[in-house]
């Protein structure tokens, strides 16, 4: 489930940035609950995460270049084990969009997720790499997502 969470986070960041941010820098922070299932322990981990997102954009002719940085940190408890966990994640996205009438674009998104046990349970680390290309009529022509999930002693 950690794999799915990392991939979903990457795609959500891609789709959440409007093209109206040309030539700006914006940031936001939010605290929210989370829940996921560890592939290493089977625990359902629930807790609270702090999410910080920074977006920088620049318009070069008809091309909008976006760089998005996300940092997520939090803590949670596993059920049924009762184990405590620390959740850390970073997301980096580089995106280019044509802002003429075609609105085509491409993005590369890399997400790193760490679930660190504060006891005897194994740690978990996942890395997701996503590439998305959208053509002029809004059709996703390329969607490639690779995820590596590892249980660490």
Structural write-up:
There is one protein chain. The protein is mainly beta. It has one domain (2-152). The chain is built from one helix and seven strands, in the order H-E-E-E-E-E-E-E. A seven-stranded antiparallel beta sheet has the order 1-2-3-4-5-6-7, with helices on one face. The longest helix has 14 residues, at 2-15. It is elongated. The model is unreliable at 3-21 (pLDDT under 50).
Order of helices and strands: HEEEEEEE
Gyration radius, rounded: 17 Å
Using DSSP, what is the number of strands?
Answer: 7
Helix share bin: under 10%
Low-confidence region ranges = 3-21
Shape call: elongated
Number of helices: 1
Alpha-carbon distance between the two ends:
19 Å
Question: Biggest β-sheet: count, sense, barrel?
Answer: 7 strands, antiparallel
Structural class: mainly beta
**Count of individual domains:** 1
Report the average pLDDT across residues. Answer: 84
Strand line-up across the major sheet: 1-2-3-4-5-6-7
* Amount of beta strand: over 45%
């Amino acid at each position: 489930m950690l794999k799915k969470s990392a991939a979903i986070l990457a795609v959500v960041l891609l789709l959440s940035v409007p093209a109206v941010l040309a030539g700006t820098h914006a940031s936001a922070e939010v605290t929210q609950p989370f829940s996921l299932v560890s592939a290493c322990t089977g625990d359902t981990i629930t807790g609270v995460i702090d999410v910080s997102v920074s977006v920088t954009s620049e318009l070069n002719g008809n091309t909008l270049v976006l760089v998005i940085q996300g940092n997520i940190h939090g803590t949670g408890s596993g059920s049924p084990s009762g184990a405590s966990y620390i959740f850390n994640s970073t997301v980096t996205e580089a995106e280019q969009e044509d802002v003429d009438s075609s609105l085509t674009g491409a993005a590369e998104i890399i997400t790193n997720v760490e679930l660190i046990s504060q006891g005897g349970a194994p740690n978990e680390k996942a890395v997701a790499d996503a590439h998305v290309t959208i053509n002029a009529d809004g059709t996703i022509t390329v969607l490639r997502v690779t995820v590596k999930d590892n249980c660490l002693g």
